Fold:
Amino acid sequence: MLNNQTIEKLIEMLLTTMARNYKLQAEDSSFEALGFDERFGLLVDQEWISRKNNRQKKLLQNAKFPFYDACIEGIEYLPDRQLDNAKITKLSTCNYINECRNIVIVGATGSGKTYIANAFGTAACRNFYSVKYFRLSELVAELQLARTENNYSKKLKRLKQIKLLILDDWLLYPLNVTEARDLLEIVESRYKKGSIIFCSQVDVGGWHQNLGESVVADAILDRIAHESYKIVVAGNDSMRKRKGLKEDG
Structure:
């Protein structure tokens, strides 16, 4: 017999999936063959799965990936890309996040760096880590705006709370002193506390000259160089071009 008051109470407690499935159980006579523990266990499992799925969906939405459908399974290991399948598979387990280590992805324009980074981000969301994607120019602009609005400290605090930051188009152009110091604040605040994925067309050896003050540059690189896994995407053929060729036939 359906107890409407029970359903109302479940909905009031935001147990909507449990309420819906309780109603389904009451209307389906096949469940009568099950004992109380089995039926209650099914209700709890369905609510738990629903909440996990909703949490994962929210994490993916909040990450703001440009490739919303990127996944480790979708990475293409074409011979000229020279990608290390074993390393990528190992990193997809997200242990580097538990270790508070970083990933540096280096490759030419259009080589698929962003997709790979987003695939790692998706893997992190699937493991219920908070993730946020930024192009470096966007992050620098947001920090500048936060400073003018006297929200700089709050902005840094929010960034610090995110388990994985993805910084794309890393150091494509020289930074001014303020921008470089902002990045030092971020890198320093996350050192041994969070992870960053850096996507760059410039190899690590060329980063120093785009970081302004030598002391600031040294401090940033020191905190990145020794705590990062490196992935080099070889080849000069654009993945965008390849995808276009496939689509055209």
